[in-house]
Amino acid sequence: MTVDLDDTDRAILRHLQADARTPFSEIARQIGMSSATVHDRVTRMRDAGVIEGYHAKVDPRAIGLGTSAFVGLRVEQGSDAAVDRFVEHLRGLDGVQEVHLTTGDWDLLVRVFAEDTDDLRELLFENVANAEGFARSYTMVVLGTEHDDPALPV
Amino acid sequence: MTVDLDDTDRAILRHLQADARTPFSEIARQIGMSSATVHDRVTRMRDAGVIEGYHAKVDPRAIGLGTSAFVGLRVEQGSDAAVDRFVEHLRGLDGVQEVHLTTGDWDLLVRVFAEDTDDLRELLFENVANAEGFARSYTMVVLGTEHDDPALPV
DNA sequence: CATGAAAGAATGAGCAG
DNA sequence: CTGCTCATTCTTTCATG
To answer: Which domain holds residue A39?
Structure first.
């Protein structure tokens, strides 16, 4: 699971995190290596699971998802199995982007997207609060995203 | 800001969200259009800001970031200017990936990555809690990410 | 929105340090 | 073992209908 990465690998990762469609030849030029080498390193990092994928980042508002929120969720009698079943249910819901198990007041912290507050209410009341195992929720509506850099510090 | 997207655009977005390096020719084949058309649509959506970018998704653990957390933050006398200054400070910190303004108990909800709990403590105590305007924080350590789909439902 | 052509990139084999 | 050169194939890109 742990992978050895040298400075070359890290430089490549920085480029691909910033723009996953940068031509390998361009990355090669910038780090002073041949594109074959870049190709090689990238292949190795994909195979090793360091690079999990390449994804277009879409503006939620542009596709009509103007509302988003973080929702803290508590599951009844937070047993492992109960939480698992609940997570499975959440995973199937449109608009649920991330589900995290966390320490603190809730068992789960969930990131959701919705068209508007009506849509959000529907998602929460009809699809989350009605689910088996649900105990209570705490919704933090996102008023603004001030920073969102998909790149990790490599 | 609002852009009209037809079914073709949406199909293209689904492909690029799932794998941003899918050749346009392959997308074209799957949606029954020429690659020139796909190229055209993609260019338009990039220019319109619908597609904000393409990013490699890197496994945090593979690069030594085994710990992550959501941190709720309260800013002293939560005036706009005070929050803005605080956000600016957070933006400059390594490991701070997202900063959201939210409703609820905190002014800000922040997603952070760290090497381990020691590194997380350092980030929070030395770089966040010491900053001007800081009032209090509430840290939710991520014990597990059960779901993390970068694709929005288009 | 498609066709077709020109430019450029990805990919893989084999070679060199 | 790691990176490079080279050649093939495939993709991107753009002018045109």
So the answer is: 7-47
**Is residue B79 over pLDDT 80?**
no
Strands (E), chain A: 51-58, 67-75, 96-102, 108-114, 134-148
**Residue range A49-85, pLDDT digits in tens:** 999 999 999 999 999 999 999 999 999 976 788 889 9
- The closest alpha carbon to A93, from A119, A60, A63, belongs to A119
Question: In this structure, is the CB of residue B39 within 7 Å of any atom belonging to strand D?
Answer: yes
Q: What is the CATH classification number for the domain harbouring A113? A: 3.30.70.920
Judge whether residue B41 contacts strand C, using its CB and a 7 Å cut-off.
Answer: yes
Nucleotide in closest CA–C1' contact with B23: D11
Task: Collect all residues of chain B within an 8 Å Cβ-Cβ radius of residue A69.
Answer: 102
Look up residue B55 and give its two tokens: 């990013």
- The answer to whether the CB of A20 falls within 8 A of the CB of B54 is yes
φ, ψ dihedrals at A37, nearest 5°: -65, -45
The Cα B33–Cα B29 span in angstroms is 6
Number of domains present in the structure of chain B: 2
| Distance of alpha carbon B47 from alpha carbon B65, whole angstroms | 34
DSSP state of B64: T
Q: Is B152 on the interface with A (CB under 8 A)?
A: yes
pTM value > 0.90: yes
Residues A79 and A128 in one domain: yes
Rounded to 10 deg, the angle between the A35-48 and A7-18 helix axes is 80
- Tell me how close the Cα of A95 comes to any Cα of chain B, in angstroms: 6
Q: Say what the pLDDT of residue B2 is.
A: 64
Q: Strands (DSSP E) along chain B, which ranges?
A: 51-58, 67-75, 96-102, 108-114, 134-148
Question: Which of the two residues, A31 and B82, has the higher pLDDT score?
Answer: A31
